[in-house]
Amino acid sequence: DGGITQSPKYLFRKEGQNVTLSCEQNLNHDAMYWYRQDPGQGLRLIYYSQIVNDFQKGDIAEGYSVSREKKESFPLTVTSAQKNPTAFYLCASSTHQDSQPYGYTFGSGTRLTVV
Amino acid sequence: AQKVTQAQTEISVVEKEDVTLDCVYETRDTTYYLFWYKQPPSGELVFLIRRNSFDEQNEISGRYSWNFQKSTSSFNFTITASQVVDSAVYFCALSVNSGTASKLTFGTGTRLQVTL
């Protein structure tokens, strides 16, 4: 079955450490995204990528970095510069048909906690 | 800039009651897309519906229905005869095209609690 796989499901980070969240899709979607969800808030866009080797900052990119070396993969690194990284992180991908967004799919998320 | 407002933070209903979740959006783009997602306790977002700005037809899918009104910039979601399994957080989202990517702007969500 096609879908998006995020790992790990739960992640604990010590202060000052960088951690990388994995996101893999087998939907052959061109675009991929990372969103952050905090309690009582909607999802906010961190980074997105339209094609391989290209990505753009979203609304809250500070303290995060990404790469897109393969179409299927879009890992997110939470760096030590991110002051409040405890949150639920969701990866998504999308494709387009006739210039319309189509097939916007989310992964099951990674819950990151700073200890 | 885009904005989505879900004024209802939490709604509690008894099973079999009808419930409407409100969504109001703001955008200056004439072409845009509206979505509803369901987030059960597991955390994954489940796609419910996508509607483009040129299609104001209301839609019904089983117990779910959506009312899109451009005149009031609203895209409300109604669950008829609610069930306990409908308990979840529901998000309304807006997208405008940006090349081949569609960045979603989400509302803050409405938590629906359905009890027996």
Question: Can you walk me through this structure?
Answer:
The complex is a heterodimer of chains A (115) and B (116). Chain A has 115 residues and is mostly beta strands. In chain A, the strands form two sheets. In chain A, strands 2, 4, 5, 6, 9, 10 and 11 form a seven-stranded mixed sheet that branches. The termini of chain A are far apart. With 116 residues, chain B is mainly β. Helices cover 0% and strands 57% of the residues of chain B. At the A-B interface, strand 4, strand 5, strand 9 and strand 10 of A face strand 5, strand 6, strand 10 and strand 11 of B.
Summarize the structure.
Chain A is mostly beta strands and 115 residues long. Chain A has strands at residues 4-7, 10-13, 19-25, 31-37, 43-49, 56-57, 64-66, 76-78, 87-97, 100-106, 110-114.
The share of residues in helices of chain B is: under 10%
- Mean of residue pLDDT values of chain A: 91
The assembly state of the depicted protein chains is heterodimer
Radius of gyration of chain B: 14 Å
User: How does the major sheet of chain A shape up?
Assistant: 7 strands, mixed
Which sequence of SSEs, written as H and E, runs from N to C of chain A? EEEEEEEEEEE
H/E element sequence of chain B: EEEEEEEEEEEE
Q: Indicate the proportion of strand residues of chain A.
A: over 45%
Largest interface, chains and sizes: A-B, 32 and 27 residues
Shape verdict of chain B: globular
Unreliable spans of chain A are: none
Cα separation of the termini of chain A: 36 Å
Task: Find the count of extended strands of chain A (DSSP E, 2+ residues).
Answer: 11
Q: Tell me the Rg of chain A in angstroms.
A: 14 Å
- Please tell me what the overall shape of chain A is: globular
Structural class of chain A: mainly beta
In the predicted model, the low-confidence regions of chain B spanning at least 5 consecutive residues are: none
Helix content of chain A: under 10%
Number of helices of chain B: 0
> What structural class results from the helix and strand content of chain B?
mainly beta
